[in-house]
Structures are given as C-alpha cells and as structure tokens.
C-alpha cells in the first residue's frame, strides 16, 4: 500500500536542540543514490557532505568512476557496476539523435535499478535510515514501499516537472504556453504512450512485480515525485514554480559544488590563463565521448574570432591532435574556479554548467543536444545571458559570430553581472538538507 504524505510507520528519536551534532545513538544513516556525469553526481556528494557535517553517516551509491570524488568529500562509497560500464555508456550516447540518447540512457537506468535497490536495502538500519535519490533512479522510492524507509527525491532540472501551463521544452520544437491546451494535453499523452512508458514505466513495473508491488501508470507524470520530500535544486527566478507542479516540492537553488577543494585548477591551466586575454571555455559535457566535431569546430571558431580557448574533455581522442598555442586542452577543471576567469562559456546546456556560469557572470553560448538541455537553454536565453545554436547550426563562422556578439554586447554583460549578484545570499545545499530532514524525520536542525 502506498504511504500517504503524513503516514509515518517508522520512528526516529526526537532531536536534541542542545547540540548541532548527533550522538551515535541518534545518528541517521543517509543512503544516497545517483548516476550520470559529474554534473549529475556532484550535487549529491554535496548533500552527503552536509549530512555528514551534521553528524549523520552518509553512504553514496554510484559508479566507481566517481570513487575518488566521493572519498575526497569524506563520504562512504558503495560502488555500483564497473568503470567500464560508465565509459561504454558515454561512448554509446548519440550526439545527433536526442531520442536515441534518451532510449539508451533510460535502458541503462533500468539495467542498474535492481542492483541499486539490493545494495541499498542491505545497508538499511530499521528506524534509523533515510534515502535520497535522483530523478530517474527509482531504487530509493522502491525501498520506501517495500521497507518503509523514508525517502527524498532531489531533482536537478526543471524539465522533470510536467506542466500544461508552461510546458518544459523537451525537444527543439515542442509545445509551449501559446500552443492550444488540447494540443498540449495530446502531446503529453503521446509522449507517455510512445516514449516514457516504454522507456521508463514498463521496466520499472517489471521490477515492481518481482518485489510484489502493484504496477504504476505513467511514471513520469506524477509517480516520479512521490516521496516524503521532493527538492528542486534550482531557484525560483530561473524556473518559476507553476501552479500545476506538485505542491510539496521545495525549490532551494543551484548546488554549485564542483569539488574545487580537492581538484584545484591545474598549474598548467593557471599559467595559460595568466599568459594572455581571458579565453573562451568549451565543454560538451563531462560524459560526452562523441563530441569530436564540437571541439574541431570550436577550435576553428577561435581562429576566426581571434580568441584564445580552453577545451575541456575527459576524452582526449575528442580533441584535435594539433592545436595552436592559443588553445589548451584539459581533462577537467572545476567550473567554480575556471569560469570567473573566462570571457565566455560554450557548453551543452547541462544544468550544472548553466548554474556555474550564472554565478560566474560568464556570457553563455549553448549548444543543446538531448535530455534536459533544450529546456535549460531556453531558461538561460530568457534570462538574457545566453545565445543558442543547435548542432546543425554549429559551424566555425556561426560560432565565431555568436561569440563576438556575446563578448561585445554591453546589455548582456550587465545582465550577467546582475544575475551573478543573486548568488550572494543563501546556501541551497543546507536548505535542501533542512527540508529533507524535516519532512523525512520531523527534524531539521540535526
């Protein structure tokens, strides 16, 4: 039986207001599950760090590719799968076909959900455990039903919230607020029938049957938000809450954690930055192993525009073999340290990349290819801090022209500074943990 929001068959000890830290007797075990690129994983590491700082035991379940990041943050690490799985997925995700990319990614989530569920279930301590899961990793919500473990779901991007009032932009040309309502509803119905249910609902229901749970309908319509706490890690000014979103969702702000404490800018990159004018940074996504044309085009655009560039990719074979002295390749650079030093940032539209660029006040040129990227890009363009080029438009002359316009546009520069000033106050990760503890245990200060 599905638990309603206010039903609590579990029990947690009452908070002790005399101290911010918990004694071992009152410590919670916080099981956190995530999968994806650095932009997908690092926010959950940040949540784990905050929970650990409050005296709780944080265990993060992820691909072993991220082991060093998790251990460096002081968290316990539970590996799921193998590094080769992550590398293979990166190589299989298509840059040219959004639906093919979604189909492959959804299959990977489905393949791993069972292993996440079993690994997390083995760590549950009755009455002292809560779980935190990402949008499309359903293991934590299954444990809520099978073992009565309190659960929080943390969403990174606004496109997971289905709205008929202001639909998220899921593909380049999609329904919007000007589309007649009948067509909006029909579009969502067709998306469920032909995409979301085959990709997500059907494999989830197969696992639910194994666990003795009743099937669910249209997983991405509402079930995706069913948890004791639902958190959205973006601010209201980036994507305004719609009245047809779930009422219990808490919007906090961009997480912005990028492991800079443990992964500072490489000395060679620091020297490059100091050796000339501020460069343009280029990144196609840390998990994108099919971006060779992106980097070749970007290098050519830098030559046309007469600017220096930093090419960021874990996959060295994506970078042109010979690059001039005014270009530099790095495998990774924490955006919080790099982006304040660049003249513009060209990227794929990942929500983490956009949040970091907004805080740094860097003008953005966005080339969305799949997933949440089209919607994220639309929000950034609406804010007046970004321009957009689709992959078919991404040619050296077009990129060079867009960069020249961005870097010389005074209103865009002013708007970037104004948006950056909004990051001065607040701690989104702390606010997220307050909400999770309050709604999952009745405690917020511990």
Instruction: Give the percentage of residues in beta strands.
Output: 5-15%
Helix content: 40-55%
In the predicted model, the low-confidence regions spanning at least 5 consecutive residues are 1-25
- Please tally the helical runs, counting DSSP H or I stretches of 4 or more residues: 14
Order of strands, widest sheet:
3-2-1-4-5-6-7
Biggest sheet: strands, sense, closure?
Answer: 7 strands, parallel
Query: Quick one: CATH class of the largest domain?
Result: Alpha Beta
| CATH superfamily caption of the largest domain | Glycogen Phosphorylase B
Short descriptors:
single chain; about 450 residues; alpha/beta; Rossmann fold; seven-stranded parallel β-sheet; about 40% helix
Folded structure, characterized:
With 446 residues, the protein is an alpha/beta fold. It has two domains: 24-257 and 426-441, Glycogen Phosphorylase B (Rossmann fold); 267-423, Rossmann fold (3-Layer(aba) Sandwich), CATH 3.40.50.2000. The chain has helices at 38-53, 67-72, 83-92, 98-121, 139-147, 181-210, 267-274, 292-305, 335-338, 351-360, 373-382, 396-408, 410-420, 428-441; strands at 29-33, 57-62, 76-79, 129-134, 151-155, 229-232, 249-251, 280-283, 309-312, 327-330, 344-347, 364-366, 386-388. The strands form two sheets. A seven-stranded parallel β-sheet has the order 3-2-1-4-5-6-7, with helices on both faces. The protein starts with 28 loop residues before the first strand and ends in a 5-residue tail after the last helix. Mean pLDDT is 90; it is low at 1-25.
């Amino acid at each position: 039986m599905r638990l309603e929001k206010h039903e609590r068959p579990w029990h947690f000890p009452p908070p002790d207001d005399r101290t911010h830290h918990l004694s071992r007797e009152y410590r919670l075990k916080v099981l956190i599950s995530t999968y994806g690129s650095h932009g997908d994983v690092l926010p959950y590491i940040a949540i784990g760090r905050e929970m650990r700082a409050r005296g709780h035991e944080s265990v993060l379940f992820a691909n072993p590719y991220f082991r060093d990041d998790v251990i460096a943050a002081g968290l316990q690490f539970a590996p799921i799968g193998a590094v080769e799985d992550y590398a293979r997925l990166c190589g299989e995700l298509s840059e040219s076909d959004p639906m093919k990319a979604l189909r492959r990614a959804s299959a990977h989530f489905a393949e791993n959900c069972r292993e996440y569920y079993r690994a997390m279930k083995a760590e549950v301590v009755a009455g002292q455990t809560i779980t935190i899961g990402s949008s499309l990793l359903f293991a934590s919500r299954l444990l809520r039903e099978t073992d009565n473990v309190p659960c929080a779901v943390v969403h990174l991007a606004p496109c997971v919230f289905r709205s008929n009032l202001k639909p998220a932009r899921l593909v380049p040309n999609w329904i919007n607020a000007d589309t007649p309502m009948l067509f909006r509803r029909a579009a969502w119905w067709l998306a469920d029938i032909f995409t979301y249910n085959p990709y997500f609902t059907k494999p989830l229901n197969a696992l639910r049957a194994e666990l003795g749970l009743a099937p669910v309908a249209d997983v991405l319509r509402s079930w995706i938000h069913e948890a004791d706490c639902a958190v959205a890690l973006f601010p209201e000014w980036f994507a305004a809450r719609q009245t047809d979103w779930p009422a219990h969702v808490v919007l906090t702000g961009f997480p912005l954690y990028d492991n800079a404490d443990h992964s500072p800018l490489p000395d060679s990159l620091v020297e490059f930055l100091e050796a000339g004018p501020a460069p343009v940074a280029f990144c196609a996504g840390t998990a994108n192993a099919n971006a060779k044309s992106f980097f070749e085009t970007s290098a050519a655009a830098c030559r046309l525009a007469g600017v220096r560039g930093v090419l960021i990719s874990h996959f060295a074979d994506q970078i042109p073999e010979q690059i001039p002295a005014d270009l530099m390749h790095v495998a990774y650079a924490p955006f919080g340290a790099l982006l304040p030093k660049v003249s513009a940032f060209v990227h794929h539209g990942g929500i983490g990349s956009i949040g970091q660029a907004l805080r740094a006040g860097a003008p953005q040129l966005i080339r969305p290819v799949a997933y949440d990227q089209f919607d994220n890009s639309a929000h950034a363009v609406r804010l007046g801090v970004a321009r957009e080029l689709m992959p078919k438009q991404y040619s050296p002359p077009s990129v060079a022209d867009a960069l020249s316009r961005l870097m010389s546009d005074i209103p865009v520069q002013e708007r970037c500074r104004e948006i950056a000033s909004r990051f001065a106050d607040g701690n989104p990760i702390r606010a997220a943990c307050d909400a999770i503890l309050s709604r999952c245990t009745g405690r917020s200060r511990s």
